[in-house]
Amino acid sequence: MKAQLVVDVICVHSYLGYTRFARAADRIRAEGIEVAVEFLPFELAPGASTEGQPLLAVLEQTSGVPVFLIEDLPPLTGSQSETTLLAALRQAAAMKGEHP
Fold first, then answer.
1. Same domain for 38 and 84?
2. Domain co-membership, 51 together with 94
């Protein structure tokens, strides 16, 4: 028996489907039947440009939901812990931007 699977490793539904498939394949193998599995690639955006696009713009276009930047977050309470957290997040975002 030959099976072809398309699995998105980050998708919980793919994981559950693969787990169920693996159990079924193990039962079939226990009966002495060979099961060959071919994993096929999963392409999230087959029509995407090969030149690349900014991640936030792509997320907004794909989801239809505006994406905000950490830099744009206003303090909610003004507490010292919140101010410290926002500062740390902004610093991490800035450092990430420096090292693509």
1. no
2. yes
Question: What's residue 96's pLDDT?
Answer: 59
Same domain flag for 52 and 97? yes
Q: Which pLDDT score, from 0 to 100, does residue 28 have? A: 93
Weakly modelled stretches of the chain, pLDDT under 50: 99-100
Residues 33 and 52 in one domain: no
pLDDT of residue 7: 84
51, 38: one domain: no
- Give the structural domain span for 22: 1-42
Give the per-residue pLDDT at 67. Answer: 67
Q: What is the rounded CA–CA span in Å between residue 12 and residue 14?
A: 5
DSSP the chain: -EEEEE--TT-HHHHHHHHHHHHHHHHHHHTT---EEEEEP--S-TT--TT---HHHHHHHHHSS----GGGPPPSS--HHHHHHHHHHHHHHHHHHH--
